[in-house]
C-alpha cells in the first residue's frame, strides 16, 4: 500500500515539479490507509537577485569621488569637462550604494571614483561584496560600467566570509601582458576544465561609450557544459554537483571582490594632459544566486540583517548545516539531488530512536551522542569492556576474542598480563602481553632459559651448564651456590685458605700440607687411571665429572678423593 502511495506521490511530484519547478518543496502530506504522514524531499530556495542583500565596501577609503568636489571629463568628449562630483550634494554624489540601487525612470545612478590625477601611480580600487551567507551562483554575474569598462580587473571570491580569497576570473585587454596568462573564453571550456580560472579579453577592449557596458562572469556558460544548450538538462548538471564537490564549490561563495587595476583608456594610450577622463564608474552589480541551504530549506529570509535558510528536515544553522538539538541520532548530511527528480532529503533523526539512526554500538550500548565539532555520532557508555565510536574496540587491558562475533558479550577478554613480568597491562590483538627482559609467555609469567622467577624473571646466578658452582658447590634454585666449607665466592670459586697453609680441615690432623700434597700428586693420576680404565660402571662416572655434577649417591670416599683431586688438578682437565 505504501509502495503504491509512494508511486502516486512520485507522479504527483512530477506534476508539481513541472508546475512549480524542481526541489521547491521540502515536504508534502502523504495520505495512506494508515493515515497521513509527512514525506520529506530535498529542497532549495529559489534563485534571486542578491544585490539588495549585499554589503559593499570600497577601498582605499578615499577612492569615492566628491570629497573634495572635483570635475571630470569623458573619454568620448575629453574637452567637455563640465561634470562634477560632489559628495556633499545628493544630486552630484556617487556613493557606493548606487551600485545596488533600484533605478527608476531610466535614470542611471552610479558609484564613481576619483580621477587618475596621480598618474603614473596606478589607479586602484577594491569593491568587496559581502553577504555573510553562503550563496550558490545560478547565472552570470554582471557588472555594468559607465564611461567604459576597465582595461584590467580581477574578480575574486571567498568561501569563508572573507578570511581567504581565491581568484575567480581575470579581465584585461592584454591577458599575457597584464597577468601572464593566455587569453581564454569561457565558451571554450569543456567538462574536464569547467572550473578553470581564466583570463578573458572579451570585456576589456574599448568599444566606444555607446557599446557594451557589461563585464560578466559567465556562470551560465559553465553550467551549459553539463546542462546543455539553454540549460535544458539541469538534472545532468545536478548529478555532476553530487559527484564533484569541487564543481559545486566553484559556484559557491560568501563574498566577492572586484579589484579594479586599470581604468578604461578610450582605445589609446594614457594622455597625460587630460587625466580627468580616467576613472571607474559602476552603475549596477547583478549577482543571481540562491542561498546555500544544503537542500534542507526552500526559503531563505533576512533575519537581523543577514540571510538565513528556513531549515526543514530537523536541521538548523545559517546553511542548515547541522542537525537540530534532539535530532542528532545520525550524522548530519546534506540533502541530495539524486535520484532525480525529487532527490533524497537526508533528514536528521530524533535522538534515542533507532529508526533510521546509525547509533550502531554492536549491542554494547543503546545510547549515542553527537559530537558537534567532529560531526560524528558516537556510542556512550559501552559495556562488556568495549570502547570506541561503535563500541567496536576493546578497553585497555582487554583483547578481542576473534572466534566470537563483535556483538558477543564476551568479545573482549582480559589480557591478564602478569604484573611482575609485563611492562604494562595492555596486550596486543592476539592477547600477547609485552614482557620485561627475561620473561616470556602470553601473559609474561614464564622465564626464558637463564632466568629464574622471583617477583619477575631474574638472571640465573648458577645453573648446570654455564654458570656451574665449582669445587663441589651445589646450585640452589639457580639463585646461589651452596659451597663446601672450604670454598667461597658466588660460584665457590675461591678457596678459603689464602696462603697455601692451614687448608683442608685445618691443622689439627697433624699431616703437613706439603706432605699431603705430595701424596695426592701421586695418588690422583693413579686413581684417575684406575677408575677411568677399570671401573666404567655408570655410578662411578660422576666421580670424574666436575664437582657441581657430583651427586650425593657417590661414595663418600670417592667424593673425598675427588675433592682432593679437584684441589690439585688444574680445572682445565675437566672442561
Ligand atoms: C585589494 O585587495 C587586495 C587583496 O585581495 C589587496 O592586496 C590590495 O592591497 C587591495 N587594494 C586596495 C587598493 O585596497
Ligand atoms: C553573520 O551571520 C551570523 C549568523 O547569522 C551572525 O551571527 C552575525 O552577526 C552576522 N554578522 C554580521 C556582520 O552581520
Ligand atoms: C579546456 O579543454 C579544452 C579541450 O578539452 C581546450 O580546448 C581548452 O583550451 C581548455 N581550456 C582551458 C582554459 O584550459
Ligand atoms: C522533525 O522531522 C519530522 C519528520 O521527520 C517532522 O515530523 C517534525 O515536525 C520535525 N520536528 C521538528 C522539531 O522540526
Ligand atoms: C573465545 O571464544 C571461544 C568461543 O566462545 C571460547 O571457546 C574461547 O575460550 C574464548 N577465548 C578466550 C581467550 O577467552
Ligand atoms: C602479538 O604479539 C605476538 C608476540 O609478540 C606476535 O606473535 C603476534 O603476531 C602479535 N599479534 C598481533 C595481532 O600483533
Ligand atoms: Ca545604480
Automatic annotation (TrEMBL):
Name residues in a coiled coil.
none
Q: Which SMART domains match?
A: EGF_Lam, LamNT
User: Any idea where this protein resides?
Assistant: Cell membrane
Domain EGF-like: start-end pairs: 458-493
Annotated Laminin EGF-like domain ranges read: 415-459
According to Swiss-Prot or TrEMBL, what is its membrane topology?
A: Lipid-anchor; GPI-anchor
Signal sequence segment: 1-21
**Gene Ontology BP annotations:** animal organ morphogenesis; axonogenesis; tissue development
What intrachain disulfides are recorded? 415-427, 435-444, 483-492
Cross-referenced PROSITE patterns: EGF_1 (PS00022), EGF_3 (PS50026), EGF_LAM_1 (PS01248), EGF_LAM_2 (PS50027), LAMININ_NTER (PS51117)
An annotated GO cellular component: side of membrane
Q: Which CDD domains match?
A: EGF_Lam
Say what the protein does.
Involved in controlling patterning and neuronal circuit formation at the laminar, cellular, subcellular and synaptic levels. Promotes neurite outgrowth of both axons and dendrites.
Name recorded for this polypeptide: Netrin G2
Q: Which organism is it from?
A: Hemibagrus wyckioides
Amino acid at each position: 500500500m505504501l509502495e503504491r502511495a509512494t508511486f502516486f506521490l512520485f507522479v504527483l511530484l512530477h506534476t508539481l515539479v513541472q508546475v512549480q519547478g524542481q526541489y521547491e518543496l521540502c515536504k508534502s502530506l502523504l495520505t495512506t490507509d494508515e493515515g497521513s504522514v509527512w514525506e520529506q524531499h530535498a529542497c532549495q530556495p529559489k534563485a534571486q537577485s542578491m544585490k539588495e542583500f549585499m554589503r559593499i565596501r570600497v577601498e582605499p577609503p578615499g577612492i569615492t569621488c566628491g570629497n573634495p568636489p572635483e570635475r571630470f571629463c569623458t573619454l568620448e568628449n575629453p574637452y567637455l569637462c563640465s561634470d562634477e562630483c560632489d559628495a556633499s550634494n545628493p544630486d552630484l554624489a556617487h556613493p557606493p550604494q548606487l551600485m545596488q540601487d533600484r533605478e527608476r525612470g531610466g535614470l542611471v545612478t552610479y558609484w564613481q571614483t576619483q580621477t587618475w590625477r596621480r598618474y603614473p601611480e596606478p589607479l586602484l580600487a577594491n569593491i568587496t561584496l559581502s553577504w555573510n551567507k553562503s550563496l550558490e551562483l545560478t547565472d552570470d554575474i554582471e557588472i555594468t560600467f559607465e564611461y567604459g569598462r576597465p582595461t584590467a580587473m580581477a574578480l575574486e571570491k571567498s568561501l569563508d566570509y572573507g578570511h581567504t580569497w581565491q581568484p575567480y576570473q581575470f579581465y584585461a585587454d592584454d591577458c599575457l601582458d597584464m597577468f601572464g596568462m593566455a587569453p581564454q573564453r569561457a565558451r571554450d571550456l569543456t567538462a574536464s576544465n569547467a572550473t578553470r580560472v581564466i583570463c578573458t579579453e572579451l570585456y576589456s577592449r574599448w568599444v566606444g561609450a555607446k557599446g557594451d557596458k557589461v563585464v560578466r562572469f559567465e556562470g551560465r556558460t559553465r553550467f551549459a557544459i553539463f546542462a546543455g544548450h539553454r540549460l535544458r538538462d539541469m538534472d545532468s548538471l545536478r548529478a555532476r554537483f553530487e559527484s564533484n564537490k569541487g564543481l559545486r564549490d566553484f559556484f559557491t561563495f560568501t563574498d566577492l571582490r572586484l579589484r579594479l587595476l586599470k581604468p578604461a583608456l578610450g582605445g589609446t594610450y594614457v594622455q597625460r594632459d587630460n587625466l580627468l577622463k580616467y576613472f571607474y564608474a559602476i552603475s549596477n552589480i547583478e549577482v543571481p544566486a540562491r542561498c546555500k541551504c544544503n537542500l534542507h530549506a526552500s526559503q531563505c529570509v533576512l533575519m537581523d540583517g543577514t540571510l538565513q535558510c528556513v531549515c526543514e528536515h530537523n536541521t538548523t544553522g545559517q546553511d542548515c548545516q547541522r542537525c537540530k538539538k534532539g535530532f542528532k541520532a545520525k550524522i548530519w548530511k546534506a540533502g541530495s539531488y539524486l535520484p532525480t527528480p525529487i532527490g533524497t532529503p537526508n533528514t536528521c533523526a530524533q535522538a534515542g530512536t533507532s529508526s533510521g539512526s546509525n547509533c550502531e554500538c554492536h549491542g554494547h550500548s543503546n545510547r549515542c551522542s553527537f559530537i558537534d565539532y567532529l560531526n560524528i555520532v558516537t556510542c556512550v557508555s559501552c559495556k562488556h569492556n568495549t570502547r570506541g565510536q561503535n563500541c567496536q574496540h576493546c578497553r585497555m587491558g582487554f583483547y578481542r576474542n576473534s572466534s566470537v562475533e563483535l556483538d558477543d558479550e564476551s568479545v573482549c577478554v582480559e589480557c591478564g598480563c602478569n604484573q611482575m613480568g609485563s611492562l604494562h597491562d595492555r596486550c596486543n590483538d592476539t592477547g600477547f602481553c609485552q614482557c620485561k627482559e627475561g620473561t616470556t609467555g602470553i601473559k609474561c609469567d614464564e622465564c626464558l632459559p637463564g632466568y629464574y622467577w622471583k617477583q619477575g624473571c631474574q638472571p640465573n646466578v648458577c645453573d648446570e651448564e654455564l654458570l656451574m658452582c665449582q669445587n663441589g658447590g651445589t646450585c640452589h634454585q639457580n639463585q646461589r651456590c651452596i659451597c663446601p666449607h672450604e670454598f667461597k665466592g658466588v660460584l665457590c670459586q675461591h678457596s678459603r685458605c689464602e696462603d697455601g697453609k692451614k687448608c683442608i680441615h685445618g691443622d689439627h690432623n697433624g699431616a703437613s700440607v706439603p706432605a699431603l700434597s705430595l701424596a695426592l700428586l701421586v695418588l690422583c693420576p693413579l686413581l684417575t687411571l684406575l677408575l677411568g680404565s677399570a671401573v666404567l660402571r655408570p655410578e662411578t662416572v660422576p666421580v670424574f665429572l666436575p664437582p657441581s655434577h657430583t651427586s650425593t649417591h657417590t661414595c663418600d670416599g670417592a667424593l673425598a678423593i675427588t675433592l682432593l683431586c679437584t684441589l690439585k688438578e688444574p680445572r682445565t682437565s675437566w672442561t
